Structures are given as C-alpha cells and as structure tokens.
Amino acid sequence: MKKILIIEDDKTIIEGLEDTFSFHDFQVFTAVSGSEGIRLFKEKKPRLVILDIMLPGIDGFEVCKKIKSIDPGIPVIMLTAKSQESDKLLGFELGADDYVTKPFSIKVLVARVKAVLKRSAGKSLKEKTITLGAVEINLKSFTIKKGGTEHALSPKEAEILTLLLDNPEEVIDRDRIIDEVWGDEYYPSPRTIDNFILKLRTKIEKDPRNPEHILTVHGAGYKFKTNSS
C-alpha cells in the first residue's frame, strides 16, 4: 500500500482527502502544521506529499525545501488558494512536481497524484558524473560542483538538464521541455522555462550572461554544447 502524507491546516479538507485516498488504497498520514509534517515525513517515509502553502508556523515553501533536502526525489504536489505565476515558479524551483489551486476537484487531485507517482516511478536519472572543465554534474545526487562550491539541483532542474544532456547539439523547444518534464498535469509559461534555464546557467556556466554550454537558439529553443569554443 502506497503511503501518502497530507500537510494541510483545514481539517475539513483533510477529512475529505483522507477518506478519498484511503478508498483508493493509499495509507494516509496527515499533519496540520509544517513542523508536524516534517516530523511525519521523516518518520513515515511516504511515497508522495500533498502540501498546502498557507500553513501556521513554517509555510509550505519552507516545508517543501526541507523535505526535498531530505529526499530530493520525493514527489510533492502543492495545494494552495494562490494562483499567481510567481508562487507556482517558486514552488517548482523548490522542487514541487505539480501545483493544484483551490477550490479543486478531488477526482482531479487523485488523478494527478496517480500521474505524478507513475511518472516518478518511470523516471531514472542518469547515474553518472559529467565533467565540463571545472564543473562536475552529478544527476544521481542532484548536485553541481563549480569552482569548489557545490550547488543543489531541484528535481525539475535535473530533469531539464538530463533532457538537454541526452540530446547534445539538438535544439529542444520549450513545448518539448514542458511535455517531457511536466507532462499533462501542469502547463507552465515560457517565462517559467526561461527562469529554470537561467538558474541552470548560474550553476554551470563560467559566465552565465555569456553561456558556453546551455545555448539559446532564438525563436527555436535551447541546446546543450558539451565542448566550449
């Protein structure tokens, strides 16, 4: 039985989700605060977390950051009344796998949970280290070392980078990045993709403003160049 952790301070929502996911053969654990959620995450080791952003004490963004530092591969679906693009972008940068805005359909949420779990189980990031001059990329540990400094990769950053590395010198357009990294559960804007690319350049490039590896092909997309000129 798959374990799922729901971190939500609205007890009415918790009761409804607990009944629904139990019916769908999930073992459900619930928490009404961020600190309780982090404790239960460490104790119960769930397969997926449904996480409200507006929590008492530690907010959902900080909870997401904390649990992703413990297990970078854990799927997280953020649940919130907010719908601004900036909130979604921050959630994805912290490693969220999907984003559901209240009010929501429980059937849709169940479908998204199953889709995220299926996608998570089917993914296997490369278990190897890639060296680009003074930069060392480790997709297994979600880290990049550059100039003696280690940078953490969010799961989405790692997936985008894997897609680029799997297709060196090939132009990858934004729609393909969205399809292969996010699937049908969420459709981020082109600006969201551009922000992820900018963050990857900051971690990889010697001069992010003049990239040598993650290149923009204007009007087409991005491509990864292994050897700098």
3D structure, described in words:
By secondary structure, this protein is an alpha/beta fold. The protein has two domains: 121 residues, 3-Layer(aba) Sandwich (Rossmann fold); 96 residues, Winged helix-like DNA-binding domain superfamily/Winged helix DNA-binding domain (Arc Repressor Mutant, subunit A). Helix content is 42%, strand content 22%. A five-stranded parallel sheet has the order 2-1-3-4-5, sandwiched between helices. A four-stranded antiparallel sheet has the order 6-7-8-9, with no helix packed on it. It has a two-stranded antiparallel ribbon with strand order 10-11. Strand 4, helix 4 and strand 5 form a beta-alpha-beta unit. Helix 2 runs parallel beside helix 3 and helix 6 crosses helix 8. It is elongated and about 55 Å long. The model has no long low-confidence stretch (mean pLDDT 87).
End-to-end separation? 52 Å
Model regions low in confidence, pLDDT < 50 over at least 5 residues: none
CATH level-1 class of the largest domain: Alpha Beta
Major sheet size, sense and barrel closure: 5 strands, parallel
Brief summary of the model shown:
By secondary structure, the protein is of the alpha/beta class. It has helices at residues 11-23, 34-44, 60-70, 85-93, 106-122, 155-166, 174-182, 190-204; strands at 2-7, 26-31, 48-52, 76-80, 98-101, 129-132, 135-138, 143-146, 149-152, 214-217, 221-224.
Structural descriptors:
Arc Repressor Mutant, subunit A; about 230 residues; five-stranded parallel β-sheet; Rossmann fold; four-stranded antiparallel β-sheet; 8 helices; 2 domains
